Amino acid sequence: MENGIGNLPGLKNTWSALRKKKPEVIWWSLIWFPYAIPKQAFLLWLAVRNCLTTGDRLLVWGYKGDTQCGFCRHGLESRDHLFFRCSFSSRIWKNCMQRCNIENPDIDWLNVMDTGYRQWKTKRMWGALCRLVLQSGVYHLWRARNEIKHNGCPKTEEQVLRSIYWDVRSRFSGNGRFAKTMESVNLCLNWNISFSVLV
Ligand SMILES: [Zn+2]
Q1: How far is the CA of 192 from the centre of ligand 1 (A)?
Q2: Is the omega angle on the peptide bond into residue 84 within 30 degrees of 0, that is, cis?
């Protein structure tokens, strides 16, 4: 049977099409949550909807300028390349995720969003931290991308990382009220967050 229920590749394609079609609904919990930073949440929402002015989209609109990735200069710039397949972005993403105790983070956009949706919606500090790191990572990588595209001014990995660390620490400072567990103590140490967020 060509398109029967037992046609697994067909089912896989359907699921893939569905999650691409309504991502903003499926992944809402990654965008809006108590510790979200509004301007960063908004940018993530644009990224989820693939509405950022990335090179691949500019090409479709007939843009004749440079559409290469400004970070690695290796291939067409797209959302999925910037977040986080690009060698520059992936190193930053991996560094941040490892500080969240995720040793081998996925760098595929749809997989990151799926994992986040399934695992990070939790009251544990870890869940809030991972969601905040995702928002902050996308935000600061996009800003760094714009600095190159508009001002020809590349930032180093360390500079982008420092911006992410700063935002994450600042957002939790005096704000958090998380259960004091081995995990949350460890996360505070990893991110240099005050233990006062633990109760
Ligand atoms: Zn790149």
Answers
A1: 29
A2: yes
Distance from the alpha carbon of residue 119 to the mean position of ligand 1, in angstroms: 28
The overall average pLDDT reported for the chain is 89
Task: Give the distance (Å) from ligand 1 centre to CA of residue 86.
Answer: 4
Residues linked to residue 178 through DSSP beta bridges, in sequence order: 198
- Please state, for a pLDDT cut of 90, what percent of the chain lies above it: 80
Rounded to whole angstroms, the maximal C-alpha distance in the chain is: 61
Average pLDDT on 160-178 reads 91
The per-residue pLDDT for 173 is 83
For 21, how many CA atoms within 13 A lie in the half-sphere containing its CB? 6
Does the structure show a pLDDT above 90 at 12?
Answer: no
pTM above the 0.85 mark?
yes
Contacts of 22 by beta carbon, 8 Å cutoff, 6+ apart: none
SS3 52: coil
**137 C-alpha vs ligand 1 centroid, how far in Å?**
15
List the domain boundaries for the chain: 23-197
Spacing, Cα 94 to ligand 1 middle (Å):
15
